[in-house]
Amino acid sequence: MATHDGTRILAGRIALVTGAGRGLGRAFAEKLAALGADVAIHGMRENGPAEYGEGTTLTAVAAEIGQQFGVRSQRVLGDLTKGEDIARVIAETESALGPIDILVHNAGGDIAATGGKPDPNDAVHIKEADVRAVLERNLLSTILTCQAVAKGMMERRAGRIVTLGSVAAFKGRTQGSIYAVSKAGVTHYTRCLADQLRPYDIAVNCIAPGDTRTGRFLGTRAVDPGRMVETGTLDRIATVDEVARVVELFAGPMGAFVSGQVLRIDGGGQCWPG
Q1: pLDDT tens across 172-193, in order?
Q2: What is the pLDDT of residue 1?
Q3: Residue numbers annotated as active site
């Protein structure tokens, strides 16, 4: 078993991390587990972790995280654009681990209806099927998953919800336009949900990463080698851990009175309000 980093400030808490088989989602799950939380590892496909060479199966990822950090872990599969799948994911999580204290809704991506990136992927020519796929995968899944988890948290008058936005939400762009629109929607839904959940002592916040060196990011575009440094400049591509560590703020004791906020993690690439 690996040595635990830091204190176990989330011991006894139950976390559900969606899209957790690889990339940022896995890093969020590992961070929460390192802090002592029991974690449900959600994915849409059992073999999803292998798609960009970041693992084998979702079952294996869940087992590895549980063993490495000495916590309980559970693998849960489901399509989070469908209410019945969301209900099952929550039921399986709570049956195995207990009521959900922390939701990190990471599932999403600029992914076409048939997989891969939409092509074309601009504001005018993107196909209708791809518009619907990107909006559903990002915005609709966020709304439906947060709704379902929030109801239980409201009954218990406790909880933390973290959504995943993107710096794409804050600037007009020709390419990846619908993805940007979906993340702008996630950003504002987060604020609306935070407003509604204030009386219930539930903090809701959004993490908005910039370019991050996940397997999918590096495997789907040309990357400037000069931006792959890790020190000496903030004008670079973030490491996965630099984004994942922010979940400790939003899920842990330091974030108890922080809600309705969107934190851009981009090394200062966007230094304007919004």
Answers
A1: 999 999 999 999 999 999 999 9
A2: 36
A3: 179
Other Cβ atoms less than 10 A from the Cβ of 196: the count is 12
Q: What is the pLDDT of residue 6?
A: 54
Spatial distance between the Cα atoms of 29 and 23, rounded to a whole number of angstroms:
10
Gap between the Cα atoms of 167 and 237, Å rounded: 13
d(Cα 266, Cα 118) in Å, to the nearest integer? 24
Burial of 30 (0-12, 13-18, 19+ CB in 10 A): buried
Q: pLDDT tens digits for 245-257?
A: 999 999 999 999 9
Closest to 249 measured CA to CA, from 261, 239, 240, 237: 261
Q: How many residues does the chain have?
A: 274
167 C-beta neighbours (distance < 10 Å), count: 18
For 62, list phi and psi in degrees, rounded to 5: -60, -45
Residue ranges and CATH numbers for the domains of the chain are 14-265 (3.40.50.720)
- In sequence order, the β-bridge partners of residue 105 are 18, 163
Reading the block at residue 158, the tokens are: 């406790």
User: What pLDDT digit, counting tens, does each position of 195-240 carry?
Assistant: 999 999 999 999 999 988 876 676 677 888 888 899 999 999 999 9
How many CB atoms are located within 10 Å of the residue 265 CB?
A: 17
